C-alpha cells in the first residue's frame, strides 16, 4: 500500500503564499469554520514532510509566538505530529517534538516514505520541494486554501512559480466562513 501525499498550501487569489506588511496570519480572514476544519484535518494520524526553509520558518515563528495564528489548536497539533525534515544543511535534534532530519534528495525521501508509511503524508508549505515532487509524480493531492485577497504589491513566495504544467482534477471543494475556498485537486503532469 502506498501512502497518500498531500501538498497543503495557503494562497492569496493571485497565487502568493505570504505577504509582507500588516496582513497578519491567514491575511486576517480566518474564522471559526476554517480553524475547526483545519484542526479536524490535522487531528488525523499523518506524517508531516518539510523542506529545510519551511521548517526554519515554522520553528522561528513558533518560537517567537509573534503571529496570532501560532496559538491556533491546529498549529499545535501539526507541531506534535511526527515529521520528516528533508535537509542537507540542518542537523538534529530539532526543536520539534517528533522530527527526524533526512539528509538526502527529497524525491528519494518521499518515494521511500510513500512506500513505507502506514499513515498519509502531508506537507504544509515547502514550495520548491513540493513543486519538484509534483513534477516527479509523487504528489497525490494539492490542497489549496484560497483567501479572498489580492497581494499584487505585497505578495511573497509565488506558489507555482517555475512549476511544470499540470492538469488538475477537482476531487473536493468547500467554502469556509463564507469567503475562503478550499480546493483539493489530483495533479497530472501535462504532456
From TrEMBL:
Transmembrane segments: none
Residue ranges of every copy of the Bacterial bifunctional deaminase-reductase C-terminal domain listed in the record: 6-178
Gene3D superfamilies: Dihydrofolate Reductase, subunit A
InterPro entries xref list: DHFR-like_dom_sf, RibDG_C
Domain of life: Bacteria
SUPFAM superfamilies the UniProt entry points to: Dihydrofolate reductase-like
Protein's name according to its UniProt entry: Dihydrofolate reductase family protein
Amino acid at each position: 500500500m502506498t501512502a497518500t501525499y498531500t501538498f497543503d498550501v495557503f494562497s492569496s487569489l493571485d497565487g502568493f503564499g505570504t505577504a509582507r506588511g500588516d496582513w497578519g496570519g491567514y491575511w486576517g480572514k480566518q474564522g471559526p469554520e476554517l480553524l475547526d476544519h483545519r484542526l479536524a484535518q490535522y487531528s488525523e494520524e499523518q506524517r508531516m514532510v518539510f523542506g529545510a526553509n519551511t521548517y526554519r520558518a515554522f520553528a522561528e515563528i513558533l518560537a517567537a509566538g509573534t503571529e496570532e495564528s501560532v496559538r491556533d489548536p491546529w498549529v499545535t497539533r501539526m507541531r506534535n505530529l511526527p515529521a520528516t525534515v528533508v535537509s542537507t544543511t540542518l542537523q538534529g535534534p530539532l526543536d520539534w517534538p517528533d522530527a527526524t532530519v533526512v539528509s538526502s534528495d527529497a524525491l528519494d525521501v518521499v518515494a521511500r516514505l510513500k512506500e513505507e508509511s502506514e499513515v498519509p503524508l502531508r506537507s504544509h508549505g515547502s514550495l520548491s520541494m513540493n513543486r519538484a515532487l509534483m513534477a516527479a509524480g509523487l504528489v497525490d493531492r494539492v490542497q489549496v486554501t484560497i483567501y479572498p485577497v489580492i497581494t499584487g504589491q505585497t505578495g511573497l513566495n509565488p506558489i507555482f512559480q517555475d512549476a511544470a504544467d499540470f492538469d488538475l482534477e477537482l476531487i473536493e471543494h468547500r467554502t469556509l466562513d463564507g469567503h475562503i475556498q478550499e480546493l483539493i485537486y489530483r495533479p497530472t503532469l501535462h504532456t
